[in-house]
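FOLDING PROBLEM:
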Amino acid sequence: MRFKRAIIVNPPHPPGYVSNKDSMGGFGQLFPRGAPPFPPLDLPYLAAYLLREDFAVSVIEAGALDLSSAEVCDAIASEDPGDGTLVVIRTSLPTIDWDLEVCAQIRLRSPRLPLVLFGGAVPSLLFRIKRDPIVDFVILGEPDEAVAELMRGDDLAQIAGLVFRETDGWRQTPARKAERDLDRLPFPRWDLFPHERYVIPKSSMMGQMRFLPILTSRGCPFGCSYCPYPTGQGLKWRYRSPGNVVDEIEHLVRDLGVEYVLFRDPMFSLNQKRVVAICQEILRRGLRVKWGCETRVDCLEEPTIAIMARAGCTGINFGVESSDPEIQKGVDRKPILAPEFINAVNVCRRHHIRTFAFFIVGLPGDTVDTILNTIRFAVDIGASWTQFTVATPFIGTKLHQWAVGHGFIAPDHYKLISSHEGSIGNERLSAAQIHRLHRFAQIVQRNLINRRGILKNESRTNPPYRLLKAIADAVGRLAAGACLWAGDVYFRRQSWRGPADAIISNSTLGTGQTR
């Protein structure tokens, strides 16, 4: 069957949460109600691709508009689509059960409409999707070409990366190769989305900025066992040309009034020459835009950081994870030594770039000592902002396989909310012990390192503010040292038991984790 029109849907938030489907390599995570909506980057890409192929497209961004499932069903029905319309729905790991409920409501209200489901975690969730045969098609991998071929009416058996229902059950075609020439993809069609609702905080003391994300590369060759990016995007690093990247930035700034661009690449500076070329082109065109990115400290040198700062970079996220090189090795992470992190943070500070350091508590091999040392290092490193999450067995990752192999979770365990909620132990510590250590790390993080945003604005240069900030930094370090001493005494006096024997299943854990 040929389809003439696609209705692209970002489903409503699950009750009590705000869904960010773009985070964790597209696996997604949930935040408490009140958190700002985050743009689902693959949806405007899909809309742009289908429009370029001359299909009609409409969008229902229930997340940003805070629509209920009933309102989504009404919106779809009000379009009076009739035959020849396909409804394409984005799902994620922590919302899969809720999204399938929404699909069931859509099916009840508009029974003639075929439903397509896609998302980064979908290949690992087929067993769950097939359990309740609500949707008609499932896309495995990047959706653009597969949905276009489905719309054109191609033979279903010849559409790579497609799972579809037949009278006698489900059928799955061979995997689709990931798009390598990213320059051939059209720019995301943010004009179809309520992009004015996407905002990012400037700081704790200065309003908010209109922003949009941009994806200049896909995939990560490092393959850390806890990270969903290699699972969702692959190990092969694929990238766009500098000119193509800056063309999109110029479009966002001049046509949509964007003030801040967030690069969503898992490894923005893997090729530093490309980063320098992007920055040079931003400067050549005179684009006034602030931006941030995420990368590894061993993929950044000071000359690169310097031109990034001149081109508008105001923030860089670094994954530290653990201060212990052996713990890093144990999760297939290329070790980075403490002096490298400290030097990178100091270099960024010299160029007035804020740094955000990520740490993970409870990785395989972690002990009370290694975790407390990592918290201590988070204080010493002096990053602008710090975040502690907990080791999270996202289904499809090697960490999930490790947890299954050690009997910590069931093979089909998938119910997670974010990486801020502990769900597994390791060889040395139970889940409860890791939970307490993580909560301790968060106390240090929120109150003594991040100071709840108080006196954390590094862009203010007036002497009185800088003096107060320096005093607050010093007091925070002293208080953190005292807190760590007390924590060391407390945790060493506890009667720590070994890892829990119970295997966590989807029925025993309904909530979970984030980064």
About this structure: The longest strand covers residues 206-214. The two ends are 41 Å apart (CA to CA). DSSP finds 16 helices and 18 strands in the chain.
